[in-house]
Design brief:
Two copies of one chain form a homodimer.
Chain A lengths: L5 H22 L2 H8 L3 H7 L3 H18 L11 H18 L3 H11 L1 H13 L5 H10 L8 H17 L1 H7 L13 H16 L4
Helix pairs in contact in A: 1-2, 1-4, 1-6, 4-6, 5-9, 5-11, 6-7, 9-11
Chain A binds a DNA duplex (18 and 18 nucleotides) through helix 3.
Chain lengths: 206, 206
DNA sequence: GTCTATACTCGGATAGAC
DNA sequence: GTCTATCCGAGTATAGAC
């Protein structure tokens, strides 16, 4: 019996992440996960009872890491504009590390809405205020202009997430010029989203 | 033998669209499609040889209807700004009719990049100029400011598509307040995207 | 803990009656 | 053209040796 087998579990989780993220719950194949982790299919069942359980761990992990990114917006030691600008940089860095994250979460939620509603709510419940409330408050105190906070939030996420979401299309359309990844750490993307935020929240162009 | 059986094929196509759009190629079940079309599973194979062929028809249809929306940008009887504003309204109307369209196309492309590359190119080849070239030209002739056309295009699509793409998440997060569909014909969304376009292409806020 | 071999199940596809 | 019944492969899951 070997001593350092505990990393097998990690290898499986890494493989499972990669495969589930690409193909989703239905599309993923246990054989594919096993191959990627360079172990036998039977071992998957030894470590994680069955496919659903393995998927759940992957999905839960993804979901909480995704929502974790928003923590910074809750830190009220900084002005709201600052917080959002930090968030922009952070979420773009996060998504360039896990480009399939948004797609994965959205797709699985849309297929199995009911099942995941509770998970999202459990995560949300841990926060004393959600972002919409924060924006509403800032608006009341005239920290930001009289904008629609829901629409602003949607646009903010649109600008940050969609470039990664749609990367496969852009890649095909632009013959592998690999937009927006031509830019090593997405500096241009970050800057233009920040510009949008600054313009919208101060009504001053920069 | 009935006379009006030709609509069976249509019913199948409608059912196939709905099921494939929601679950994707792998996730979709022929039984599910048959049930939705209110016919027997065997009939699916009678009309469309097999699952792949049925899927192909659905995907091809979706892809060309999606790209059709961009036609207006090629009509050079109008100034570029006008064309893009029309496109914004049009694509948002289109996506609110088929909210799962973007997700479907992106997801299938990302799973099977190679297979669909040719299809996209076949559609693209029919156009004498693509949108990026049009933007480049407008910029040269000082019709629009000195912006990065790729980045602009990405942002434009982000703002239009992501709200529908992420609707499942927003729906869960906001407890069915059904954003952004609280707004009957998405007037607020259209207006704010148009504002963005006008601001970016004229550098004048409105 | 890890493997091979195998059992079981689901779903796509086909045969054939009507 | 539409149905029922059935086949068969693919993929999940388990048994059991090591």
């Amino acid at each position: 019996m070997k001593l350092k087998d505990s990393n097998t579990e990690e290898r499986i989780m890494e493989a499972a992440k990669a495969v589930f993220m690409k193909y989703g719950l239905y599309g993923a194949r246990m054989q594919d996960i096993a191959d990627t982790a360079k172990i036998n299919k039977a071992l998957l069942h030894y470590y994680f009872r069955n496919k659903e359980k393995l998927f759940d761990q992957v999905f839960d992990g993804a979901l909480s890491r995704y929502f974790e990114q928003m923590e910074v917006i809750h830190d009220d030691s900084l002005p709201i504009l600052e917080r959002i600008l930090i968030y922009v940089v952070q979420i773009i860095d996060f998504l360039s590390e896990y480009p399939q994250m948004s797609m994965f979460i959205i797709k699985e939620i849309s297929i199995n809405e009911k099942l995941f509603k509770e998970k999202v709510h459990k995560i949300k419940r841990n926060k004393n205020a959600n972002i919409l409330t924060i924006l509403e408050k800032s608006r009341k105190f005239n920290e930001i202009p009289d904008i629609d906070p829901v629409l602003f939030l949607i646009h903010l996420h649109s600008l940050c997430s969609y470039p990664f979401l749609a990367a496969p299309i852009f890649k095909v359309i632009t013959e592998n010029s690999n937009i927006p990844f031509h830019d090593p750490s997405n500096l241009k993307l970050k800057q233009s989203v920040k510009d949008y935020v600054i313009y919208t929240l101060t009504k001053k162009s920069i």
